[in-house]
Specification:
Blueprint lengths: L3 E7 L3 E8 L4 E8 L11 E2 L1 H19 L6 E8 L3 E5 L17 E2 L7 H9 L17 H11 L1 H6 E6 H10 L4 E2 H7 L11 H6 L15 E2 L4 E4 L2 H7 L6 E7 H10 L2 H4 L4 H5 L2 E6 L3 E7 L9 E5 L7 E7 L3 H9 L4 H11 L3 H16 L10 E3 L17 E3 L7 H28 L6 E6 L5 H11 L2 E5 L4 H13 L6 H8 L2 E5 L6 H25 L3
Helix pairs in contact: 2-3, 9-17, 12-15, 13-14, 14-15, 15-16, 15-19, 17-18
């Protein structure tokens, strides 16, 4: 009987399940959409029941498409967005929504309802904040929990447990409340290097009672640790057997880091730990995350971390990020007068809207002879949903310089192209910030939705001046979770061993030196735009 593992990626808009052999070959992949609700501005909510149902559908279809027997699946693990899940004392959904509907019991990572509480927490200057770049984000759990306590006191009183979404998936699968070192270190300010919760921090921010009554578990384990076997009910719903071991999960971007960085051992000769400090994992999706690891902690204002053991065991993680990347590209398209036409063109040709616009961009590049300089008269600051790194400024806004009255398809294509470049300038800003603080980043290992767009890849290589290494397995985030499943099931002794055995390199994107001067000039303007934005905010603050 052959043995395989399943990785499940719970993203912002869909659940993706992949079945893998123990050497990292994907046998099948299935995707199911999940519901999302926007009850008010800055409020984004989901349903844990809907997410679980979508997961079960995706896993069952994945097993069927792979042609494997349920007994052949020896392990399963989950990654998920860092969203907050609330359940009552019976494990049932309890509302986190201003609507009062219990269905909506998940505050999604990108929800910014708690900006005020993030500001209040930051004003304490507590020592725990050193481990999130000095400034906590409203995307993390403590500000969201403060909002719940203040605005939905009934939910606060009646809540039985609060989970990060990846930990909820493990709980739903096994009945065991085991928290991931990754989730609690990165999003709850758990002191991973000390192996304990900082009770003083939670008392200081008015959440001392959170850590009482089992609402947040003391059982914190390394990712890929066996959390238990599937319960009979979970096995039936997932279409698997109770034989399957469930691995302690991980945040989605961190799963992507595991899924791509194993290729470091293939690509470059040398000591793996040394090489890891010269590489960054870029996971591009609705948002983008930039994962770098080091043997010693690096404290960088405005950049999340250092997080001990949150991705590669025994190493410190520094996590940069951009709050809106794929979502900003979609916004740019949907906000245009040409949106309906582009979607119609895509439907008629069997292409994606990105492929349609890429073709228009390339035609303009060639016809004008401007190539990358096609955007010389339009400048974009991509902070439409605030800045995560390196400024940690959730109050930031997007800026566009160079708009005209042109509503043509070509005008949209230029703006679309400029947005992709702006996102890449944001990545360059993060990489340069890390390198100023002791990193030596020279290679990018990339995965996620953005890497399926050749224009996105080319511009990121040219603008960062870094080689971009793609994984052989494009579903690297799902692979990262499968790696954890393989460790939990005992097929590998550790996460690094499983990374070496299951990660393999693919295409390499080389930067074009002929573009460097142009992009260096544009990058300077990009940095200036933020400073100008800050000055305008300062001058208007009295109103």
């Amino acid at each position: 009987m052959r043995e395989c593992v399943i990785g499940v990626d719970v993203g912002t808009l869909s659940v993706r399940a992949g079945a893998f052999t123990l050497d990292g070959k994907m046998l099948s992949c299935a995707v199911e959409p999940i519901e999302i609700s926007y009850p008010q501005e800055n409020f984004v909510e989901q349903s844990s029941e809907n997410i679980w149902e979508a997961t079960c559908k995706a896993v069952r279809r994945c097993v069927e498409d792979a042609g494997i027997k349920r007994e052949e699946v020896i392990g399963i693990s989950y990654d998920a967005t860092c969203s907050l899940v609330a359940v009552d004392k019976f494990g049932k959904p309890i509302t986190v929504s201003p609507t009062g509907d219990a269905k909506w019991n998940v505050i999604v990572w990108m929800d910014h309802r708690a900006i005020r509480y993030a500001d209040e927490i930051n004003s304490t200057g507590h020592r725990a904040l050193r481990y999130v770049g000095g400034i906590i984000s409203p995307e993390m759990e403590p500000p969201k929990l403060r909002w719940l306590k203040e605005h939905l006191p009934k939910t606060w009183r009646n809540a039985g447990k609060f989970f990060d979404l990846a930990d909820f998936m493990v709980y739903r699968s096994t009945g065991n409340d085991v928290r991931s070192l990754c989730t609690v270190v990165c999003k709850w300010l758990y002191m991973g290097h000390e192996g304990q919760w900082d009770y003083d921090f939670y008392e200081r921010i008015g959440l001392g009672d959170l850590l009482e009554g089992g609402r947040v578990s003391e059982n914190v384990q390394l990712m890929g640790t066996a959390a238990g076997n599937l319960t009979k009910q979970a096995a039936e719903e997932l279409g698997l057997s109770e034989r399957a071991v469930v691995g302690v999960g991980i945040i989605d971007a961190h799963a992507g880091g595991i899924g791509v960085l194993g290729a470091v051992w293939e690509e470059v000769d040398g000591t793996p730990v040394e090489l890891l400090e010269t590489a960054i994992a870029l996971i591009g999706g609705t948002s983008s995350c930039h994962m770098a690891v080091s043997r010693e902690p690096k404290f960088i204002d405005g950049v999340w971390g250092p997080y001990f053991g949150a991705m590669i065991p025994g190493m410190w993680l520094t996590e940069g990020g951009q709050s809106a990347t794929g979502s900003l590209i979609d916004y740019t398209i949907n906000d245009s007068a040409q949106a309906a036409k582009v979607k119609d063109m895509a439907e008629q040709t069997g292409k994606s809207v990105y492929e349609v616009l890429n073709e228009v961009v390339e035609e303009l590049r060639q016809r004008t002879g401007l190539y990358e300089r096609l955007t010389r008269d339009i400048h974009i600051l991509d902070f439409h949903h605030g800045n995560r790194s390196p400024y940690a400024d959730p109050h930031a806004k997007g800026v566009i310089d160079g708009l005209t009255l042109d509503t043509s398809l070509e005008s949209l294509a230029r703006r679309y192209y400029a947005v992709i470049q702006a996102i890449a300038y944001g990545t360059r800003n993060i990489v340069e910030t890390l390198n100023r603080h002791g990193y030596r980043i020279e290679r990018i290992y990339a995965c996620g939705g953005g890497t399926k767009n050749p224009v996105w890849l080319r511009e990121h290589a040219d603008i960062t001046e870094c080689r971009i290494y793609l994984p052989r397995e494009p579903e690297a985030v799902v692979l990262g979770s499968a790696i954890l499943a393989s460790v939990a099931a005992g097929a590998y002794s550790s996460i690094p061993e499983a990374m070496k055995g299951m990660c393999h390199s693919g295409e390499i994107i080389e930067p074009n030196p002929g573009t460097f001067d142009y992009h260096r000039a544009k990058f300077e303007l990009y940095l200036e735009m933020y400073q100008q934005h800050l000055e305008r905010r300062k001058r208007m603050a009295r109103f």
